[in-house]
Structure formats: structure tokens, C-alpha cells
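Before the break, one more example. Copy the sequence into your notebook; we will annotate it together after we see the structure.
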Amino acid sequence: MSFFEYSILILIVVAGGGLSFLFKRLPANGLRIFLSFSGAYLLGISFLHLLPGVYAQQEIEPGYWVLLGFFIQLMLEQLSGGVEHGHIHAHNKAPWNYAFAVMAGLCLHAFLEGMPLAEYAQYYLQHRGHSHNSDHLLFGIILHKAPAAFALGLLLQWSGFRSWTVWGCLVFFSLMSPAGALLASSFHLGAKEEQILISLVIGSFLHISTTILFEADGSHKHRISFLKLGAILAGVALSLATLFF
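Here is what the structure looks like once it is written out:
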């Protein structure tokens, strides 16, 4: 990863969280529309780019690791409360351990999904011949990090935490994916380890994206507005477009 890519990972979280101070009363529907777009994109690149990549090799059986990644994300949500896909359950004057639990779940998730970024470009250079495909994973992480940071900022503010505490949490959260990438790059992972990490991230992406899409109606009446349907189709269209660049 380049310095620019590390910077983007950090800045997108700080910017997303910073917007929560400006739009404290943003209608929930507005966040759901953006989440619908990002969830559809995550699902698209998982099937179009990430899964074909890990199944093209014979180092491991990816299915086990994808399934493990799915359930790891499920367990992390017991700590984070689903903030990574836009859930905001505020508690007035929440205790410090509430913020700690949310941060622990979010940071572990961010750290794990950042690790494949260190070797991802080399993986595709060697096995698929498309060095630019590393951008798809990076962009997918960025797309769901922005609303996650926004939701985290709102959650902490609505729960009564001071501004400096909120900013501290946002900055710490912003460093997690770059830290995962830096740690992975220091170990010079082989093809087998790369496959395992990417498979775990695929499982996480599948959980996040399907949760977003299943909850896109917001009313649990199995109906999606035309605006949200348009956002979902736009996300799918963008993921399809990545096949050509």
C-alpha cells in the first residue's frame, strides 16, 4: 500500500465521523440510502472479484474461512451493536464500558479487514494478472467505513460523551485498518495466508452487505422504496463496471 492509500483510510473515517457533528439530526432514511448503495457494492465485489480470486487457487479450501469470517463478524457485532452497518442505539449518559464494547468490536473488525490490503495487489498480480484489482477491496472498505464512522460519531454524541472523547474514538478507529495492513506487510505473507485473510474479509463483507440489504426497507414489511432500490441498483452497477477497469 502507498502512503496515499494509508492516508485515505484514515481521512475517510475522520471525515465521516466529523460530519456527525454537523448533521446530528440527519434523518435515518438518508443514512440507509447510502448504506444500501455501499452494501450492494460490497456484495458485488465479493462475488465478482474476491470470491473468484480465492477459489482460483488450491492452497486452502476457502469456503471454511469465508464461513468463519461470516461468524466472526456476527460475534463482533455483539460488541459493536452493528455500528459498522449503520445501527445507532443511543443510551443517555452511557457508561464508559458501553463505548469500550462498541470500539472493541469496530476496531477488531477494521484491523482484520485491513490486513489483506498489504499483500492484496501482489496476490492478484501473481494469480490473476490485474494489479489494479487491489483498488476494489480498498474502495469497498472505504465505502462502508464512511457511514460506520458517521454512525459511531452520532452514537457517542447521542449517548452523552464529550466531543473530545468522540474525536479520540474516531481517530483511534481510523488507525485500525492501516495498522492491520502494516502488521501484515511486516510478516511478508505467503499465498496461503493471503487466501485465508481475504476469505475472512469476504465472510465479513457478506455478513455486512446482506444485513444492510435485508434491513433496507427500515420497516420490516419486505418493501423497499424506489429511492433505496435505485441506490442498490447503482451499487450493483458500479461493482459490475469494475470488471472493465
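Residues 28-55 form the longest helix (28 residues). The mean pLDDT is 79. Try to locate both features in your own notes.
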